[in-house]
Design brief:
323 residues; TIM Barrel; 13 helices; 10 strands; 41% helix; globular
Amino acid sequence: MSRFDPSRLTRREALAAGLLAGAGLLSGSAAPAAERREARGKHRLIEKPIPSTGERLPVVGLGTNRFSPRTPEALAKLRAVLQEMPELGGKVVDTAAIYRGSESVIGDALASFGIRDRLFLATKVMARDGASGKASIERSFQALKTPRIDLFQVHNLMDMDEMVPLLLDMKKAGRIRYVGITAVTPAVHGRMADALAKFPLDFIQVDYSIGDRDAASRVLPLAKDRGVAVLINVPFGGLRGGGASAAFARVQGRALPQWAQEIGVTSWGQLLLKYVVSHPAVTCAIPGTTEVSHLADNLEAAHGRLLDAAERTRLEKLWDSMG
């Protein structure tokens, strides 16, 4: 008989088990999208500005590193997520050339649904030299089926001394709107800080969650000081902290704090996302999901209000006490 390991719970299993709802407070988080839209009416999601231009983005978006379906049924689910994204008020969709078929899935869906102009489309290049980088960038344009990409990022700082100037030239030419760099582990935060001082960046993308706060010590304050927008790529937890499954397992059987319920939070997932996007430097969190119900629950975190400093501190203390 296999031993139950709560750290291996998926988001779907957590929802099914009621882990995100604390004391049964899942009402609404998995409701049909049409009902949720009707309940919300025409209220927009909380937005924050991109410092370099003032353009505003909803504070919760979509990560797509698992958008590589192996069956027609899986593809249909991914297309449903993308179709529902703007209907629920979402806008930021982040992908990358190394996410296998993700760019093609997104490009095909956005073209067939006619929703490209309703989304803020971000992707990444990861290459070891200029020639391969240029080729990868052109393939991304072709796969995404768009003549203009909103944000192009140098993935994990790979060859950024050559790639960032290349992207800046493309920005001047009007093919991309914003330029950024990404990091996925605290090990490269120092290099990211150096890049913030060196390049005229519009965005950085970095790992940050309640269980992994390293970025808050240096990278996030520096980005805020330099007027650079921030995307958060693993808002439920990075590799060092065991990822999202470990975060959801940590709250197994625990009721949401009363103060969180009072501000309209109905799931642990929403609360953990509100914590991340409440940081003054953070522009948008991009949790990955392949399920419409998870997308809807994530976007709920962008309704109501953000956490204030006292609430963030209170949640940090609660989280740390669970360890």
